[in-house]
Amino acid sequence: MRIGELAQAAGTTAKTLRFYEERGLLPETGRTLSGYRDYTRGVLPRLDFIHRGQAAGFTLAQIKQVLDIRDDGHAPCTHVRDLLDQRLADLDAQIRSLTALRATIGDLRRRADVATDSHCRADSVCQYL
Amino acid sequence: MRIGELAQAAGTTAKTLRFYEERGLLPETGRTLSGYRDYTRGVLPRLDFIHRGQAAGFTLAQIKQVLDIRDDGHAPCTHVRDLLDQRLADLDAQIRSLTALRATIGDLRRRADVATDSHCRADSVCQYL
DNA sequence: GTTGACCTTCCAGTGCAGGGGAAGGTCAAC
DNA sequence: GTTGACCTTCCCCTGCACTGGAAGGTCAAC
C-alpha cells in the first residue's frame, strides 16, 4: 500500500509517516519501481504502539527506545516497566505541583474579588498577581 | 545602572532583559553617551511582576497584556481577574486530564507487573503499553 | 598601553512533533 | 492526451522563552 493509504488506515498523515521514518521509528520500507514507498499492513501494529505511547505521554525518543529493543529481537518488558515507573513518578510530581499552583492562584483570585480599581496602586503593576 | 547590574538585582541575565525589551515587556530605556542602556531601580517592580506572572504560569504575551493596560494609565484589575479565571479553568482541566492519565498508566504498570518476558508476544511490539 | 570585564548588535540554535509549500515525477481515469 | 490526485525530496516555519556566540566598542584599573 502507498503512504497515503497507510496514513489513512493509521489515522495520521503521510508527512508524519515520513517524519517517523526519518527519526528511525519506522523502518525504511520497499519502494515501487517509480520510487513510491510500498508498505504492508504489518506496520499498523507498530503505528498503533507509537500512538499508545504518545497517548501515555512518552516522547518519540522514548518510544523509539522500546522499538529498538524489539527490533533487536529482545522483549522490551523490563524497559517498558522502567519507563512506566518513571512516567508515574513524573505524573505524580506534575500533579502535585499543579495542585499547589492551583491553590496559590485560587488565593490570588479570591483576593482580587474584593478589589476594586480604586484600591489599585500602580507601584507594583498589579498587587493581585 | 547598567544592564548587568539590573540583571543581578532582578535575579536574571542581561540577555533576558534585552529579550524582554525586544518583546515589549520592558520599555526602551535611556542610553549613556557610549550607547549603554541606563536603568533606574524603578524597573525592578516591573521585573518582579513579570516573575510573579511567570510563576503563576502565564506566558510573556499575557503578562505583556497586563503591562500594556497599566502603561496606558488604566488599572488592569478586571483583565487580571479574567486571566486568573482562565488560568484556574486551564489548571483544573490539566489536573483532571493528568489524573486520568495517571490512573491509566497505573493500570498498565500493574498489568506489566505480573508479566514475564516469556508471556511477551511481538505482534503488538509491547502488550503492556 | 594593555588587560579584562563589561557593553553593543545581529544571527542562529535549543526541544518537541510535526506542518507548509515548492518543484518536479507518476499513475489511473476520462 | 490531459486532468487531477497522488507521490518524491528539499528546506523552512511554528510556539515558547530564552541561550550561545561572533565581531566589535567602552571603561576602569594597573
TrEMBL record, chains A, B:
PROSITE patterns: HTH_MERR_2 (PS50937). The keyword Chloroplast does not apply. Residues 1-69 form the HTH merR-type domain. The keyword DNA-binding applies. Pfam families: MerR, MerR-DNA-bind. Keywords: DNA-binding, Transcription, Transcription regulation. CDD domains: HTH_HMRTR. PANTHER family: HEAVY METAL-DEPENDENT TRANSCRIPTIONAL REGULATOR HI_0293-RELATED, REDOX-CYCLING DRUG-SENSING TRANSCRIPTIONAL ACTIVATOR SOXR. This is Hypoxia response transcriptional regulator. It comes from Microbacterium kribbense.
